[in-house]
Structure formats: structure tokens, C-alpha cells
Amino acid sequence: MKRKIVYSNRLAGERCKKAFQSLSEFINIVPESFLTYGSCLASHREQTFISWDTDTDTGILINDFKWSVINTLIQKGFKLTRIYGTPEYGIQFVFYKHVKIDFWVFYEEDNYYYNCLWDKGTPIKHTYPKELLVKDTGILYNKELPSLSKDYLTHVYGNWKVPVKKFNWRTDHKCAEIG
Questions:
Q1: Number of domains in the chain
Q2: Among 20, 21, 49, 140, which residue has the least CB neighbours within 10 Å?
Q3: Which CATH number do you get for residue 72?
Q4: How far is it, in rounded angstroms, from Cα 80 to Cα 132?
């Protein structure tokens, strides 16, 4: 008889409540931050976490970022598990408190913003026209949270209104500069 394997990292059931509490606490500590990627998508489409997602996604503009917030998050029980990139190029922090929380810094260039996702030490640069990185409000579990806009979602995912269960974060983002 085949045993069914349960993927315990998915944001479903009781884990959703703890993930939402951690994400809300994170945003309260870093009020300049906003939901990005799958968390932004969930706030505009499902208004709950996407059930097959395994983490939460946040970002901050470089001009709003302060190093002291990293220490504050750690003091409040968020475990800093990884740092990718450098302060000068594509830094990404990975925290854990009941759920993995990715925290990207968005850098400003002349006519666009960018951030980097990291795959085994190699950056995957994502670029956005400046007008797309405007804070909006998304809703998760009936609570308004700072989020990026629906135009941002279109730039990242294309038709974001249709769920895609087999999304490859390395290659499927429409905003990625690969290679």
C-alpha cells in the first residue's frame, strides 16, 4: 500500500493562522514594508494564503531600509536564517517565525527598480518600471496590509487572476532577467 506524503510546509490549516500572525507582526515592526510576490498575489486574489504556497514574501524600498530593523526583528523572535547578496546589490533576508518570511530590498536605478532572488548563489534580477512599485492595500483574512499593486502583479505574473499550481520561481516570473 502506498503511503500518502503530506507536505507540512504548505500554508494551510492551523499553519495559516500562525503564518498570518507572524506576517502581521513583521509588518508592524517594519511599517515601510509591503507584500510582494505570492503574498501580494494572495492578498489581491484569494484574500487568504495560497494553499500550495510555503512561505511569505515582503519587500522594502532601499530608501526606507534601515539596518536597525534587522536587529529589532531578531529581538522580537524572528530567526534570521539566511542573507543573500550584498547591501550594494540585491540583498535578501530570510527570516523564520512559524513560517519562512522572505524580505527583499528593492534598489532604485535611473528609470526602474530591481531586486534579486538567489538560486545557489546566483542572482536572478527582477526589474520593474518605477511606476509599478507603488504601495497599495491588499487584504489577508479581512485585514488590510500594505501591498504592491495589481499592475505589479501583471508585470510579475502576466495573467495573475488564474491560479498556476506548478509555478517555477526560477524561470516563470515575467520580470526576471535570466542569464
A1: 1
A2: 21
A3: 3.30.460
A4: 29
